[in-house]
Write a structure and sequence with these properties.
Oligomer: single chain
Order of helices and strands: HHHHHHEEEHEEHEEEHEEEH
Helix content: 40-55%
CATH class of the largest domain: Alpha Beta
Low-confidence stretches: 15-30, 213-244, 466-495
Radius of gyration: 46 Å
Number of strands: 11
Distance between the termini: 86 Å
CATH topology of the largest domain: Gamma Fibrinogen, Chain A, domain 1
Strand content: 5-15%
Number of helices: 10
Structural class: alpha+beta
Largest sheet: 9 strands, antiparallel
Number of domains: 2
CATH superfamily of the largest domain: Gamma Fibrinogen, chain A, domain 1
């Protein structure tokens, strides 16, 4: 409408000016004679033209109105599509939450399966040991039966047939009883083997589900390796015996004795310190002799936040990370003249070592540790822990009343009032979130970085150099990476 009025004003305004000019000229020249008017074309727009223009403007207004209505319709369509998108996004959020809940359930189930698998594995090892002993008894019994048969054949002339049959029947009963016991034990072993296969199948199924779920691949921890073969003590005894009878005097007391016998390959061996039951250890052989490794951390593949029973008996895998067990460590320490050798790798791959004169009390004293005469290329952070008892998350034996150190530090250790050293803490790549979270050796700065690798071993003689050599002919039974070679101390990570 404004445009219409503007155009009308443009057309009408000149006519007003022409009329005014005409009036003025008539007033100024009254005396001139009148000349007949000559017909000329009008300077004003015709009424039809004005109407035509107005009609065109009206049609333009209608077109604009239609365009506005069409635009409003398109905007409404856009709003409807946005509403549909919001609804779809909400449904996707709900589905994501359901997948995360399933992830948590799968994680819990996997943890339970891992625990059951460990129990079944330990039970299978015990059964294997019992089967070996029964097979040995069977061999001995068969040899005795052979001897008795020879004696029976010699006495058969002086015995009546009735007495011979009685003796033979008695021997048959004994043999049948032994065979029945052996058959039952083999049946039990087969059942345990079936259970192990079932557990493997379940864990493989869980791993397949985890691999198919993209929401869980980044958050799920490293899968448990069922194919890892830990050397069996029963198998070792069978392989090292020639006549089925095991000579207990064959076993060395520690890895240094093995080194003295000529062994130069690092690997897993059976030892028998202080006339105890034989058990398997990892021996680190270098130019200074043999070291019995009692703890190894290098990649976080094993959870060290375990209970008292686990720390007392040991856990982990000789092919990766492990804790030998307080019972076995105490058995080694009772040999006397023991040296505790600790090797560390920091965030910058700097390698350091320290060693102590070392002794360990028994379970009645909660495995209290005693250390003295430290030497090495890094600060002494453990001497002030001497006399401290071992603590875990379910058994608090630290020196600070009213505080459970393992709740703030994680992992079992000889805590002295929740001190600044813990080599069994949670494995963290780089900087730890909390000052006491991670693997630490005397951290006293606000920015705390967790150690990247540790190895604790027991030697019968002190080391001359600090670097265990990596053997060129490793033992094929197991070969964890223990190639620590200390360099110059980086004080920013240790003091």
């Amino acid at each position: 409408m404004k445009l219409t009025f503007t155009l009308l004003w443009i057309l009408v305004a000149p006519s007003s000016l022409v009329l005014c000019d005409t009036d003025e000229s008539s007033l100024e020249e009254p005396s001139l004679p009148q000349i007949p008017a000559v017909e000329t074309r009008s300077r004003f727009a015709a009424l039809d033209d004005v109407r035509l223009l107005a009609n065109g403007l009206l049609q333009l207004g209608h077109s604009l109105r239609d365009f506005v209505h069409k635009t409003k319709g398109q905007i409404n369509d856009i709003f409807q599509k946005l509403s549909i998108f919001d609804h779809s996004f909400n449904q996707l959020s709900v589905l994501t939450n359901e997948i995360k809940e399933e992830e948590e359930e799968l994680k819990k189930t996997t943890v339970v399966l891992k625990a059951k698998n460990e129990e079944i594995t330990s039970l299978s090892l015990e059964i294997n040991s019992k089967v070996d002993s029964i097979l040995q008894e069977r061999t001995q019994l068969q040899s005795k039966v052979g001897g008795l048969e020879e004696k029976l054949s010699g006495l058969s002339q002086g015995l009546s047939p009735t007495e011979q049959m009685t003796e033979i029947n008695a021997l048959k009963d004994v043999i049948q009883t032994q065979e029945k016991s052996i058959a039952e034990l083999l049946k039990a072993v087969k059942e345990q083997s079936d259970q192990l296969n079932s557990q493997r199948s379940k864990i493989r199924t869980m791993e397949e589900k985890l691999n198919q779920n993209p929401f869980m691949q980044d958050n799920f921890e490293r899968p448990f390796d069922l194919q890892t073969i830990v050397p069996s003590l029963g198998g070792y005894l069978t392989n090292t015996s020639t006549n089925g009878n095991v000579d207990m005097t064959y076993f060395p007391s520690h890895c240094s004795e093995l080194f003295g016998r000529g062994e130069r390959a690092s690997g897993v061996y059976a030892i028998r310190p202080n006339q105890s039951e034989p058990f398997m250890v990892y021996c680190d052989m270098d130019q200074d002799g043999g070291a019995t490794v009692i703890q190894l951390r290098k990649d976080g593949s094993v959870n060290f936040d375990q209970n008292w029973d686990k720390y007392e008996n040991g856990f982990g895998d000789f092919q990766g990370e492990f804790w030998l067990g307080l019972r076995k460590i105490q058995s080694l320490a009772r040999e006397g003249n023991s040296f505790l050798n600790i090797q560390l790798v920091d965030l910058r791959q700097g390698k350091h070592f320290i060693q102590y004169n070392f002794s360990l009390e028994g379970p009645e004293a909660h495995y209290a540790i005693h250390l003295s005469q430290a030497s090495g290329d890094m600060p002494d952070a453990l001497s002030n822990h001497t006399g401290m008892m071992f603590s875990t998350k379910d058994q608090d034996n630290n020196n600070l009343e009213g505080t459970h150190c393992t709740n703030t530090h994680t992992g079992g250790w000889w805590f002295n009032a929740c001190g600044e050293t813990n080599l069994n803490g949670r494995y963290v790549q780089g900087r730890s979130r909390g000052r006491r979270r991670g693997i630490h050796w005397k951290p006293n700065r606000v920015a705390t970085y967790s150690l990247q690798a540790t190895q604790i071993s027991i030697r019968s003689t002190p080391t001359i150099s600090s670097a265990p050599s990596t053997s060129s002919t490793p033992n094929t039974s197991s070969a964890p990476d223990t190639s620590f070679t200390p360099t110059t101390l980086e004080t920013e990570n240790f003091s």
